[in-house]
Specification:
Number of domains: 2
Number of helices: 5
Largest sheet: 3 strands, mixed
Strand content: 15-25%
Distance between the termini: 44 Å
Strand order of the largest sheet: 1-2-3
Number of strands: 3
Length: about 90
């Protein structure tokens, strides 16, 4: 579960917040209500990359098909895949 801080706590801890953001975002609250999500630059870039991938409908369709195939055991070995690709 993400750590929660009040705005006042976040202000006091601002110099050390980057060290706290290594694993997950920190939720900053005002009057007990979440108003800001603080995340590391790495987390932000990973999130944006994921959003970019998931907005590619053709890719998502192929990904879902692949997941179903894998769940059904319809897979090939790495060696066979390399051979089919000429690697």
């Amino acid at each position: 579960m993400p750590k929660k801080l009040t705005i006042a706590q976040a202000q006091q801890q601002l110099p050390i917040l980057p060290d706290e953001l290594t694993d997950e975002p920190i939720i900053i609250t005002q009057d007990g209500v979440p108003v800001i999500a603080a995340l590391s630059y790495t987390q932000l870039t990973e999130l944006l990359e994921t959003l970019d991938i998931l907005t590619d409908t053709e890719f998502v369709t192929k990904l879902r098909q692949s997941i179903v195939q894998a769940e059904q055991g319809n897979t090939i070995s790495w060696e066979d895949a390399k051979a089919q690709l000429g690697l």
